[in-house]
Write a structure and sequence with these properties.
The chain starts with a helix and ends with a helix. The protein is built from 15 helices and 17 strands. The protein has 429 residues and is of the alpha/beta class. It folds into two domains: 3-287, UDP-N-acetylmuramoyl-L-alanine:D-glutamate ligase, CATH 3.40.1190; 296-428, Protein-Tyrosine Phosphatase, Chain A (Alpha-Beta Complex), CATH 3.90.190. The chain is globular and about 55 Å long.
């Protein structure tokens, strides 16, 4: 199987990725695949991460801290920005085309043996576990794809289970309350799991406390972000953990919310080692963090920012960072394409505070048509609204329109961010 063959095989097995629907949540397919491979998901310890927002950043930070500690780390995240290889990495280096094709070919052979048709995400998850076993990593850092309990990643037995925060997301599969969503996410907590919780609301924290884990550390009670200052290109943090106070920790990511993610990540790694980390490990690990497509600055004149905010809570944070931390002096230009309710997303993004909105269709079968995104902007009170068939066309027009004092924000989904990055990088350079 070639790399292109592997991509075609994945696309043929895409269901949720194309429809946004899951008919019968189950771990049967992934369990059968893993059993046929000898259960590679149990080959080493696992740090398992769920939450409504911040999972990707937290997974990156945890992985960087583990690498700085001298471990070989396998990281599995989703979705990808530009290439599917990004989902599976060893020491943050994505799997090669050749290795990915080899792993997907093995899963394709197993599909015949087990007599089940796995989905795209189940195939990728099984391929990640198989590759991690092949390259003999020391620890897996695994990000949940959807909620937790029925997510394909939940065949792991987490040494440390991490919950970043809880918001109203994926209510088509869980809900209608935050408590319902929290219970689904608590499904990743196993009897031997130490749980690290970044959520602050007591009624939700109690759900994780009673989920049956071996121990729990909760923000504000057991650890705390005691300093979170704006710095050039990121944040400067002071973090109190159960063992240590770390001061002047630089994290090269934009937005105050990344300070909360960093505190959770640091405590998760301390919990994994059952010991504090050396100061040089903390400083080195955080300094190496990069998050393409997460409030990423791609240009300065004009200011060009791309962010993969894909739900209302994430969109609200994105808007706050853009409008408050950056506070652009010139015109504010919003390029937006989403997979979700455009009225909810545009309101969370505060589209009415932008001077112009370029609506586009996110490059996904689930992308909301650009005309519907534009209508939502007009309902919110936006006057200057324009429609583009593609993210690329919208970005090109935004770059032509903007002058040096203006600011462009491209957001609405990771698919939008991934499509925007290449053209914005070319234009900015």
């Amino acid at each position: 199987m070639t790399y292109d063959d592997a991509l075609r095989y994945l696309d043929e097995h895409a269901t949720y990725e194309k429809t946004g629907r899951i008919t019968s949540p189950s771990l049967d397919n992934i369990t059968a695949l893993c059993e046929a491979m000898g259960d590679p998901q149990h080959a080493c310890p696992v740090i398992h991460i769920t939450g409504t927002n911040g999972k990707g950043s937290t997974a990156q930070m945890i992985s960087r801290l583990l690498v700085a500690s001298g471990l070989t780390v396998g990281t599995y995240t989703s979705p990808h920005l530009e290439r599917v290889n990004e989902r599976i990495s060893r020491n943050l280096e994505p799997i090669s085309d050749e290795d990915l094709a080899e792993q997907i070919a093995a899963i394709a052979d197993l599909e015949v043996i087990i007599g089940r048709r796995p989905g795209y995400f189940e195939i990728m998850t099984a391929a990640a576990f198989r590759w991690f076993a092949d390259v003999a990593i020391d620890v897996m850092v695994v990000e949940v794809g959807l909620l937790g309990r029925w997510d394909a990643t939940n065949v792991v037995d987490a040494t440390v289970a991490v919950v970043t925060n809880i918001g109203m997301d994926h209510t088509e599969f869980a809900g209608p309350t935050l408590e319902d969503i929290a219970r689904e996410k608590a499904g990743i907590i196993k009897p031997r799991s130490a749980t690290v919780v970044g959520e602050t609301r007591s009624e939700l924290v109690s759900i994780f406390a009673t989920a049956g884990g071996a121990a729990m550390l909760a923000v504000d009670d057991d650890f705390e972000l005691i300093g979170n200052r704006l710095a050039i290109g990121g944040r400067l943090l002071d973090i109190r953990t159960p063992t240590t106070i770390y001061t002047d920790v630089y994290v090269p990511l934009n937005g105050a919310h990344q300070g909360s993610n960093a505190a959770v990540a640091l405590v998760a790694v301390e919990t994994f080692f059952a010991a504090p980390l050396a100061e040089e490990v903390v400083l080195e690990g955080f300094a190496e963090v990069t998050m393409p497509g997460r409030f990423e600055v791609l240009g300065r004149q004009p200011l060009v920012i791309v962010d993969g905010a894909h739900n209302a809570p994430g969109a609200d944070v994105c808007a706050s960072v853009f409008l408050q931390d950056f506070d652009p002096e010139g015109r504010r230009i919003l390029v937006v394409g989403t997979l979700r309710d455009p009225d909810e997303m545009l309101a969370a993004l505060r589209a009415d505070e932008f001077d112009i909105v370029f609506a586009c269709t996110a490059p996904s079968p689930r992308g909301v048509p650009a005309a519907d995104v534009a209508d939502a902007a007009r309902r919110l009170g936006c006057d200057a609204v324009y429609v583009f068939d593609s993210v690329e066309a919208a970005c090109q027009r935004a770059m032509e329109y903007a002058d040096g004092d203006d600011a462009i924000l491209v957001t609405g989904s990771l698919y939008t961010a991934g499509a925007a990055r290449p053209i914005l990088q070319r234009s900015a350079n």
